Amino acid sequence: xxxxxxxxxxxxxxxxxxxxxxxxxxxxxxxxxxxxxxxxxxxxxxxxxxxxxxxxxxxxxxxxxxxxxxxxxxxxxxxxxxxxxxxxxxxxxxxxxxxxxxxxxxxxxxxxxxxxxxxxxxxxxxxxxxxxxxxxxxxxxxxxxxxxxxxxxxxxxxxxxxxxxxxxxxxxxxxxxxxxxxxxxxxxxxxxxxxxxxxxxxxxxxxxxxxxxxxxxxxxxxxxxxxxxxxxxxxxxxxxxxxxxxxxxxxxxxxxxxxxxxxxxxxxxxxxxxxxxxxxxxxxxxxxxxxxxxxxxxxxxxxxxxxxxxxxxxxxxxxxxxxxxxxxxxxxxxxxxxxxxxxxxxxxxxxxxxxxxxxxxxxxxxxxxxxxxxxxxxxxxxxxxxxxxxxxxxxxxxxxxxxxxxxxxxx
Length: 411
What we know:
The protein folds into three domains: about 180 residues, Acyl-CoA dehydrogenase/oxidase, N-terminal domain (Butyryl-Coa Dehydrogenase, subunit A, domain 1, Orthogonal Bundle); about 120 residues, Butyryl-CoA Dehydrogenase, subunit A, domain 2, CATH 2.40.110.10; about 80 residues, no CATH class. The protein is elongated and about 80 Å long. It is an alpha+beta fold. About 20% of the residues have low confidence. Helices cover about 40% and strands about 15% of the residues. Helix 3 packs antiparallel against helix 4, helix 3 runs parallel beside helix 6 and helix 3 packs antiparallel against helix 7.
């Protein structure tokens, strides 16, 4: 029976998935070499530029493909199976145009020029908002990078950290403190002589993202390089609901997890210790581990996709984390509720309850916990059997388990 990917909704999604699979297979040939050496994969980005990957999230009005968030997640999750570092480095570029396509605080001409750099000239772009002392500037800290007004524009000085794709960046959106005005502003900084990459990225994972520090030493900027001001308490292009494009990071790591699972399973299916009668993948304990990992990945992937396509950010954890099995009494059920379905439903309900117990992010669960009488049963139900007396025959979990996963009641 062929496998069906339920996250692919239409022919366009299938085309995006096939496109990403082709790119992943091509960059996977040298991914291990770059990871071992910690070098930046320029050959990968040459391929991505030639195949048009830099314009995927650029609005169609500016010559791009206009990928939605959902389509971006499909692409990123499959590309990361070939090289997680390359997909992560490309993701920041894709996020820039995802942000700007959602909420634009710049002049339209500035976006048109930036889009032309990506579409026509294949330039890689990133937003530099992290500093060693201040951390992530999107949280409201004052930047240590300073822009001083001079005759003919501005002079930029400072240093940014964790600048992914630093060896290849041609345009950088930099958060800086405007010294004469006492305000934070966004500047578009091109790659010039005063921009220097400090190669200090040497980690155990994601070694080839090139997330080095970048130092700006008296960089001369034109007056139009100032894109917009960042006012305290007001939304900006990179601080509003468009930050949902950060879900592409989750898609990247889902792709890495799938590649790691496939690698481990392939090794276990080939390797046979001398003291064992079968290969490593044959013992029940190993088979159970593969099944658990596959179940976790298969549940996390639709969850990530569902959040990207949700019309509201108030999705509850029960609606997104627990697999909703169709009711056996529903005539429109896509899958019959067989006898073997209840162990999985039981485990899903217990896991969801444990997540709700340790997190305070689910508004619906908190409301139900605060009103004990109105709280609905959280455990899954077995298929009902016909009863001659009309009394319900659905079994319940033991009271011990119900007390174990009960959420503490507010005082």
